Amino acid sequence: MLTIEEAKNCLRQGGVVAIPTETVYGLAADASQPQAVKRIFSIKGRPADHPLIVHIGTVAQSYDWAVEIPDIFWSLAEQFWPGPLTFILKKKPQVNKLITGGQETIALRIPAHKKVLQLLIALKCGLAAPSANRFGHISPTTAQHVIDEFGDDIDGVIDGGACEVGIESTILDLSTKQPRILRPGQISQQQIEDFLGQPLSTMKQQSPRAPGMLKAHYAPQTPLVLVEKSALGGQLKQYLAHNLTINLWSVSSPSIQHNKLLWHPSPTNSSEFAKVLYHQLRQFDTTLADITLIQHPPKLSEWHGIIDRLTRAAAHFSLDSYLPELNNCAEIQDKLAKEKLKNSPL
Ligand code: TXA
Ligand code: MG
After folding, report:
1. Mean pLDDT on 106-126
2. pLDDT at 216 exceeding the cut of 70
């Protein structure tokens, strides 16, 4: 574990250090050092065309990275920064396209975490930092998650405790005429619209400009199925009939009791749910269950970011398409084990 001072020195020398933020841990390098930024991509196994967020310490530092900044940026930044909101702006011509994945836009955020703010103020430079997980894996929300994932591949970790928010920041694109959300997060579309007094554009993006927007992302190893509350009982019976061991994450205890059914109560409040989501998915991967069933959260604005992550985590698995065709338990377990292997850390 590094102190702020040690991390500062290491980053100045081109090191790659994991930093705590209020959303998830980030894998940081000095954004003005191309060699250091390249190391982030190679350590993460991230394709070069997936851009990074630059974390800054003051709103005024936006001028170092962006041009043609629209007026609403300043009022939104004043309202929501430091905090879990990332803005996409037009980049300054001098900004290295290595950071922006070849795009003409730049992502900026001031994170709301005491330790990282201290670091950013001391460094006076921007820190390029994606979430500190290997490409496609679950984002880390504790220092231990980062150590489990990268060990000695990185130059150190600042331990800032468990992340308060627990899911990645909301991304708001201000680089085009019509502001639009590229990635939902704790700050909801509704909150931004209420603040602006105008609706955001709902136009879909053309290509997956944000890897978090790929259909399958945020993958746990254990096959995951999202189930509406009304269908839970039926699904449980079906899986138990196939002799599967099940992790169940739902609000109320299941009506069926079974030694192959491992129930964990899920929070009813969206902030509490987001905070424990990634940790819980990691825990489920340690139970050796064949499958994880999660009760679908309420379809309300404040749950939007969570539903987005859960849907993508479940998109890796095609369980329901093949389960009805397989009657033999061994055959199903074999298929599930293969799904698990496909998603195990590299
Ligand atoms: O909460 C967060 O945003 C965390 C913490 C560490 O700040 N970071 C994070 O970084 O989630 P990452 O790299 O895992 O996700 C950043 C997202 C990616 O989906 C990336 O494609 C998108 O931001 N992004 C970055 N620059 C962009 C740009 N110029 N245009 C569109 N999307 C961009
Ligand atoms: Mg990520």
Report:
1. 98
2. no
- Rounded to an integer, what distance in angstroms lies between the CA atom of residue 238 and that of residue 176? 48
Under 8 Å between Cβ of 186 and 305:
yes
Map the chain to HEC letters. Answer: CCCHHHHHHHHHCCCCEEECCCCCCEEEEECCCHHHHHHHHHHHCCCCCCCCEEECCCHHHHHHCEECCCHHHHHHHHHHCCCCEEEEEEECCCCCHHHHCCCCEEEEECCCCHHHHHHHHHHCCCEECCECCCCCECCCCCHHHHHHHHHHHCCCECCCCCCCCCCCCEEEECCCCCCEEEECCCCCHHHHHHHHCCCCECCCCCCCCCHHHCCCCCECCCCEEEECHHHHHHHHHHHHHCCCCEEEEECCCCCCCCCCEEEEECCCCHHHHHHHHHHHHHHHHHCCCCEEEEECCCCCHHHHHHHHHHHHHHCCCCHHHHHHHCCCHHHHHHHHHHHHHHCCCC
Does the predicted model carry a pTM greater than 0.85?
yes
Least confident segment among 220-234, 254-268, 311-325? 311-325
Of the pLDDT bands very low, low, confident and very high (cuts 50, 70, 90), residue 346 is very low
> Using CA positions, which residue lies closest to atom 15 of ligand 1?
130
Report how far ligand 2's centroid is from the alpha carbon of 27 (Å). 10
Which ligand 1 atom sits closest to the C-alpha of 84?
1
List Cβ neighbours of 90 (8 Å cut-off, separation of 6 or more): 66, 67, 68, 69, 104, 105, 106, 175
Say if residues 242 and 289 touch (Cβ distance below 8 Å): no
Å from CA of 329 to ligand 2 middle: 35
**Residue 45 contacts residue 346 (beta carbons within 8 Å):** yes
Q: Report d(CA 79, CA 73) in Å as an integer.
A: 10
pLDDT score, position 337: 76
What is the distance in A from the centroid of ligand 1 to the CA of 144? 22
Which structure tokens are listed for 33?
A: 């050092």
106 Cα nearest atom in ligand 1: 29
